[in-house]
Automatic annotation (TrEMBL):
<dbReference type="InterPro" id="IPR000182">
    <property type="entry name" value="GNAT_dom"/>
</dbReference>
<dbReference type="InterPro" id="IPR016181">
    <property type="entry name" value="Acyl_CoA_acyltransferase"/>
</dbReference>
<protein>
    <submittedName>
        <fullName>Acetyltransferase</fullName>
    </submittedName>
</protein>
<dbReference type="GO" id="GO:0016747">
    <property type="term" value="F:acyltransferase activity, transferring groups other than amino-acyl groups"/>
</dbReference>
<feature type="domain" description="N-acetyltransferase">
    <location>
        <begin position="7"/>
        <end position="151"/>
    </location>
</feature>
<dbReference type="Pfam" id="PF13508">
    <property type="entry name" value="Acetyltransf_7"/>
</dbReference>
Amino acid sequence: MTSSSFSIIHELPVHDAVIETLSAQAFGPARFTRAAHLVREQGGHAPALSFIACREEAVVGFVRMTPIVIGVTKALMLGPIVVDPASKGMRIGAELMNTALAAAADAQYPLVILVGDEPYYRRFGFQPVAPGRIILPAPVNPARLLARELTAGTLQEAGGLVRHVNRA
Ligand SMILES: CC(C)(COP(=O)(O)OP(=O)(O)OC[C@H]1O[C@@H](n2cnc3c(N)ncnc32)[C@H](O)[C@@H]1OP(=O)(O)O)[C@@H](O)C(=O)NCCC(=O)NCCS
């Protein structure tokens, strides 16, 4: 995907260092204690469903997807998504989100969850999960646990503990 001023491409191992820098800049040391991080460290993200944004040959944003199970339902957890402060407000975040969600749908995943600000993610079809229905390995504010169905009805069926697919 290419826009007039930036392009979105698949993440590669060579991007690890700049992704780590962007993460540290956005979230600081607290990123290692977040509930979503605890799931990701059980097995890592899926590079084939993860993307970076490039602008004038610099990496200015990324989104990662992690394969999970919720109880027995296969799904993806989206995040982190970060855009460098100097490149915010150019719809780079929106293009990263739309690209990742399209890739998830192509790969036949029925559901995507994330922990984040509902006022931002609602525009991509995310809605709050009923409190207590989906459980992460550390407490999260229930208002920030969001889901987007890629197959209608999946959210009604999904419930329980979130684990990395490698731990299922
Ligand atoms: C969230 C983020 C990825 C959005 O990237 P972006 O490229 O600036 O996003 P876009 O250009 O597509 O969209 C910008 C719009 O989103 C809004 N927005 C950004 N963050 C928001 C938030 N947390 N809540 C509500 N709206 C938000 C902006 O106000 C702007 O609104 P407008 O379209 O009405 O002007 C970026 O702000 C970021 O990296 N934030 C820090 C890291 C973070 O919190 N990531 C999400 C949790 S993992």
